Amino acid sequence: MTTGTRHRVEVLPDEEAVARRAAEFICERVRTGVEERGSFSLALSGGRSPGPMLEFLHDELDVPWEAVDVYQVDERIAPRSHPDRNLALLETTLPDARIHAMPVEEEDLGGAAARYAAILPERLDLVHLGLGPDGHTASLVPNCGALRVRDRDVAISREYNGRRRMTLTYPAIDRAREALWVVTGEDKAEALVQLLSGDEEIPATRVRTPVQTVLTDIPVAYP
């Protein structure tokens, strides 16, 4: 099955160029949003690949952090000080940001997910998404019950690579004004073709955010 979702695609020379362009993209959207609405809500995905993008964003660009609320797209269930946590990267690279951390240390994870959903804005301004080689995005991973959640904005995923995760669900991502995909590395090539061709066999393609931009260093050709 294919979808009618369209993606604006920019192919950059290498990973550094992608990271720099992604930082510029986010900065542009933040500054415009703050000028138009007085504030901006930004949801950032985890993993290690966003590190260079976040460093460019903080160190080289003039972002009005005092007007930005930063939310997590996903987070591994682990103690706060554990190196597996996505939060550590956010706090290290964006020390001036107002970060709303997912409460994954709590014993009642379902209740914690509901409380995090309650602090989300009705509509996020920008959601940053990655793409796994298996086609997952956020922590919406293959064969996971969270893929079917339509009545909650935050859910708990199945165990994946040794950790369960807290994640935004499709409804929260789909309501965002815009989504920015940052996809680098040859191991993502097949999944990227699936995403851009609308192949719903992978979780990423089921994202319905109305405006979607893909920044990549992978040469792409798709229908």
Question: What do these coordinates show?
Answer:
- The protein has 223 residues and is of the alpha/beta class.
- It has one domain: Rossmann fold (3-Layer(aba) Sandwich).
- Helices cover 29% and strands 19% of the residues.
- The protein has six helices and ten strands, in the order βαβαββαβαβββαβαβ.
- The protein has a seven-stranded parallel beta sheet, with helices on one face. A three-stranded antiparallel beta sheet has the order 4-8-7.
- The model has no long low-confidence stretch (mean pLDDT 95).
Summed over residues and divided by their number, the pLDDT gives a mean of: 95
H/E element sequence: EHEHEEHEHEEEHEHE
Assign a percent range to the helix content: 25-40%
Strand order within the widest beta sheet: 1-10-9-6-2-3-5
Uncertain stretches: none
Span between termini = 14 Å
CATH level-two architecture: 3-Layer(aba) Sandwich
Look at the structure and give the CATH class: Alpha Beta
Put simply, the count of helices is: 6
Might you state the CATH topology name? Rossmann fold
Radius of gyration, Cα only, in angstroms?
16 Å
What portion of the residues fall into strands of 2 or more residues?
A: 15-25%
Class by helix and strand content?
alpha/beta
Report the principal-axis shape.
Answer: globular
For the secondary structure, the number of strands is 10
